[in-house]
Amino acid sequence: MTGVRLIIAEDQLLVALDMETIVTNAGHEVCGIAANADEALTLVAEHRPDLALLDVELGGTDGLEAARLIMDRWQVPTLLVTGHVTMEIARDVGVVGLVRKPFTERTLLSTIDACLDWLNHGVVQQPVPPGFIGPDIAGPENDTYQPTPFRRTES
Fold first, then answer.
1. Contact 41/67 with Cβ under 8 angstroms?
2. What is the pLDDT of residues 21-63, one digit of tens each?
3. Region (Disordered) spans which residues (predicted)?
4. Which of 82, 92, 73, 99 is closest to 145 using CA atoms?
């Protein structure tokens, strides 16, 4: 998987720095780290990343609303990294994935890769990581979930 540009929104600095190390070591570029929802929105507007990694509890601000805005305004696919929401809530918001905290490097990277594969090619390599949200999660009887399509934007 070719590296992508992303932002990290996480109010716990050590967790944010850990995520930054993991994704940069995997070949991705971190455009910035936000400690709250407003900073996340500013980073997305300035950098137009390929992917946004968002915590839900951002120092009291609403990460779910920030995720909705990021996807609606800039069409940037968003992956939640949190211990505070269920898969159903994440699916309702429209994000491409959910990584539960505490996470491992493997879980974070495999979920990012699965989300990017699906957004770019419409397929996911097996086995599907547990945090990937897509048609396989919705189930064959309710296969209606569609994420915001991945679009590389030039800044």
1. no
2. 999 999 999 999 999 999 999 999 999 999 999 999 887 678 8
3. 132-155
4. 92
Ramachandran sector of residue 7 (left: φ over 0; alpha: ψ -120 to 50; beta: rest): beta
Task: Report the alpha-carbon distance of residue 79 to residue 115 in Å, rounded.
Answer: 8
| 41 touches 84 (CB < 8 A) | no
- What does the angle CA 80 – CA 147 – CA 129 come to, to the nearest 5 degrees? 55
Contacts of 128 by beta carbon, 8 Å cutoff, 6+ apart: 114, 134, 136
Q: Which two tokens stand for residue 111?
A: 């979920």
88-106 pLDDT per residue, tens = 888 888 888 889 998 999 9
Amino acid, res. 90: A
* Token couple for 90: 């994440």
Report the first-to-last Cα separation within the chain, whole angstroms. 22
5-136 topology per CATH: Rossmann fold (3.40.50)
